[in-house]
Amino acid sequence: MWAFLCATAPFVRSQNTSAPDSIDYSISPQLLDEVVVKASSTINKTDGKVIRPTKEMLRTASDGIDLLRKLQLSRITVNPLTNSIDVAGGGEVRLCINGVESTSAQIMAIPPSEILRIEYHDAPGIRYSGAAVVIDYITSRQESGGNIFLDSFDAVGKGRWASIDNFAAQFNQGRSVWTANAAYFGKRSDNWVRDYDETWRYPDGDVIRHEYGLPVTIGNHSLETSLNYNYLHPAGHTLNLRLGFNLEDVPNKEEGDRHAILETSGSGLPVEVREHTEEHSLQPNFGLYYQLKLSDTESFILDAQGSYVRSRMLHEYFENGSSESSLVTGRKYAGRFLGMYENRVGSRVWHLGVSTDLSYLRNRYENDGFFNVNIRRSETALMAEYSDRFGPWGVMGNLKGVYRHLAQQSGKLDRLFLLPEVNISFRPIDRWFLRYSFSMDYKMPQAAEISDVEQPIQAGMVRRGNPDLKPFRVIDQSFDASFESGMFGVDARIEYRNEHRPIMESVLFSDGRFVRTYFNQRSFQRLTFGGSVSLRPWKEHLSIAAMPMLTRYFSHGLDYYHCHNIFRVGLSVDFSYGNWIAYGGIMSGPANYMYGEEIIEEKDMNQIMAGYKRDNWSVSVGVFDAFINYRMESRNLSALTPYISKAQSGSHSAYFAMKFNLSLDFGRKIRQVDVHRNDLDSDSGILTGTK
Asked: Nearest CA to 73 among 14, 140, 7, 132?
């Protein structure tokens, strides 16, 4: 009874203070079977946490993404310069509104005052298969009025700029909600420099190549738009229709543009090197989502969506009068269907479902001649999941039977897999929470890896697909422990990943050329120790969190074995008092990892922002990457072509930034229940010629 009262009382109060004609989704059967940590707004569950933001967080947050930053979740990094959300250890982060997948642009448009809680699933079940983390915003709903939302973030530095602009409009009438979203992201730097040291080990001797980088311009632009219609029946049935259109324009790619002076051993004359890569794509898409409430304890979900991707990639390389050039154009058709039955009785929850993913891509490679690659992929799964609580113990387990098909001109690959997952949690006493997780999966080759095609990189070097690749097994295990009090919190996590016969790159020497290609290697293992320590020394006005992480990699190929450590530390500080707000921190980019023989380490970034917040608007100013020179270093440990690439943004990396946010309400506004999935398949499957 005490657990029931603690879990429901805060939400019942929010119901009583809402407008009489509002619909409040704050009570969920999932919450009633859990124990609330005393003096905390966090409920630990077997698959993650349920977090009720404090009134101070909601009052001072400018948008939904800003609120996520304020929560300082241990495995999540929010980069305000790009609006990207990354999870420690890698993997996909899926954002949801009221249980259904959405985009960061739609999350930003949520007025913080309408957010009831955030469900953070770091061990998501079968409904979100493939995601490392799911962040679900649970919002309230009314039935009239509307809202217009504008958000602009601009950052300017010496020879560089970045801009993120969001617009959202919403109109509500009775049981219907119409919304429109548009989000633009642009970034440009005129002084991107990359130094390159490489050794080519021929059978008769070594050639050492050193490139002294010269400044080049890099940049990218993207536009994401959508129109949504949502209908909510009094019985709980929900219908959502979505039409979207996305554009990607990368005139100068960060990983594929460079200008340098090359010095080669054995040659006294330096030569000029230029590399240029550009990519363009457009993607119309649609979605249909329907949720049928069969009874108070049963529901059925039907989700269907499709997309079309048209892409173009141009790669050019010039060295000492010789050149290599390739053009790849492609079309991809993708569709997804999900049907799922859900049964909730007390703490016991059953899920039964079937899903199908289909895609067909046709890429045309043009260099000296042309070559067409047609690839068909499909995946059909039958799924079952069970979760329950037994006193201080919690358990969630699922089993999927998956049939995967991959075919191209030279052959096909068909496999049937049984994929189990288990999560066991235990609360020994209040404030403490322990959990063990286990999952197994089999990864199919990517379209680019298995393509029976060859792409030139530069004179004497090519990249080649391998149609003989096989699926490989992946086992993930983790152990989590957390302690929470009013002013102090600790999260600790140990994670172990084991890949058997993974697909990783190798370099061969064949017919006088170095060939970068893919093989099923022996094994890949990753051991991670991480977590966070959070302090709240001044009630709700000041919050400090430190997030260290140490990862050790073991990469065992057919003819190599490498070990490597990467240590990262994140720091986040958030302050608010009255209408004044400030925040800052140090964050590590997502590019710190090792796989195969490649190691990428990105320098930590920093930010300091301060501003003023009112009910319907806010403004902040600050600086990014102050007092540092941003750089990214990648290394390849190949025995035949080892290299070190050091890229940086020039001698002055700082951005001066300003963020402005405006939310205008008319009538009684309503927050849309975005019941549509947005896991669009936008991978073009192109085998690139970049290093």
From this structure: 132
